[in-house]
Design brief:
single chain; alpha/beta; Rossmann fold; Dihydrodipicolinate Reductase, domain 2; 5-stranded parallel β-sheet; 13 helices; globular; disordered N terminus
Length: 384
């Protein structure tokens, strides 16, 4: 191991994600899991008491718990021991302004998806990062289970032949739970266009399925047709979406995502059909991968087995048969992101880092925009 990487850890901060929330602690545990980085600063909440309570709980010194993100970026950029990167876990509408101010102060960014609210915002952030030689990671978490990497390697090596058809589903029922409690009341920010953007479920859930398809197949989509559904009918943003995808090379896909699918928690499933076989993966059992070849018995591959590709096995953290989950998927992103930043400091960066980067974030925004346009224009094909 390079001595710089062995001896030096990265410092990081968090904007948003204070105590009482959900996603912030997932990022924190993921970033800390491989002992490559230390939380030293944060602007965790606009509520002063919650902000300080978060800092106290997570061991951040009082002078580095900041009242707002702009003050944090300015102060940390002037410190010799300032943060190397910031994790952004705010509602969608704050991703762009928060990321911009940190990039302008020379600080790398790890951002929750979607990257921004618009394609133009994402393009601007990418331009700033490239000008300043900074890195941006987008946390498409579900693509960083070990068996997703195994699927990618199998497809890359032609085990199932050329990909012909893809089916992706990501249903949840949180919208129905909210409506059951407060009918016609849109209190969740995911339903507010000013905070969520032009899309709710495509931008919040469908984008995960989109990236899973990309991560598993390596294919680039050319165009989409999207049809949105709304519940209740006066909802400002969609509650479900049915999307057809056409990929470069001729493969076709269908993606369904919904926040009104009663009985589903986070039921992501991916089916990929090739000329010689198929691959299936479900989030309900993420340590298993179903592989079927023409006229052969179905194989069930599991994590941490010797028959896995080395790159997939390296993402497993427990012996075979022990469940690995959500926090470990986050950790796999942060391990690669931190490795990239540490290698840049040591001037040994080789370009081989497996995490969703700024271009992936921009591509995701183009996918969302194309789906919104297709639905608005009465379900026509829209090029991405």
């Amino acid at each position: 191991m390079d001595p710089v990487r062995k001896l030096r850890k990265l410092n990081f901060g968090i904007v948003g994600g204070g105590v009482g929330g959900n996603i912030g602690k997932s990022h924190l545990r993921g970033a800390l899991m491989d002992n490559q980085a230390v939380l030293v600063a944060g602007a965790f909440s606009r509520n002063p008491e919650r902000n300080q309570a978060s800092g106290d709980l997570w061991g951040v010194s009082q002078d580095r718990v900041y009242p707002d993100y702009a003050m944090m970026a300015a102060a940390e950029s002037q410190r010799k021991d300032g943060i190397d990167f910031v994790i952004i876990v705010t509602p969608n509408h704050l991703h762009y302004p928060v990321a911009k101010v940190f990039l302008e102060h020379g600080i790398n960014v790890a951002c929750e998806k979607p990257f921004t609210l618009t394609v133009a915002e994402a393009e601007e952030l990418c331009a700033i990062a490239r000008e300043k030689d900074l890195e941006i990671a987008i946390t498409y978490t579900y693509a960083h289970y070990p068996m997703i990497r195994q699927a990618r390697s199998l497809i890359r090596d032609g085990v199932i032949g050329d990909v012909m058809e893809i089916v992706a589903e990501y249903p949840e029922d949180w919208q129905m739970l909210a409506q059951n409690q407060k009918p016609d009341h849109f209190s969740n920010w995911f339903s507010d266009p000013a905070m969520a953007g032009e899309s709710s479920v495509v931008g919040g859930m469908g984008i995960h399925a989109w990236y899973l398809l990309r991560a598993m197949t390596g294919l680039q989509e050319e165009k989409v047709i999207a049809q949105f559904g709304y519940y209740p009918k006066n909802a400002p943003l969609e509650s479900n979406a049915r999307i057809l995808l056409r990929y470069q090379g001729g493969a076709q896909g269908v993606l369904w995502t919904s926040s009104t699918a009663i009985g589903h928690d986070c039921t992501i499933s991916i089916k990929i059909f090739g000329e010689k076989g198929s691959i299936e993966w479900e989030h309900d059992d993420p340590t298993r991968l179903r592989v079927a070849l023409v006229d052969q018995p179905v194989q069930i591959m599991t994590c941490e087995r010797a028959y896995l590709y080395p790159e997939a096995r390296a993402m497993s953290r427990l012996p075979a048969g022990h469940p690995e989950g959500f926090y470990e998927a986050f950790a796999n992103i942060y391990r690669e992101f931190c490795r990239h930043l540490l290698d840049k400091k040591a001037r040994t960066a080789d370009g081989e880092y497996y995490y969703p980067d700024m271009q992936t974030g921009l591509d995701g925004m183009k996918f969302i925009a194309a789906c919104v346009q297709s639905n608005r224009e009465d379900n026509v094909w829209v090029r991405i």
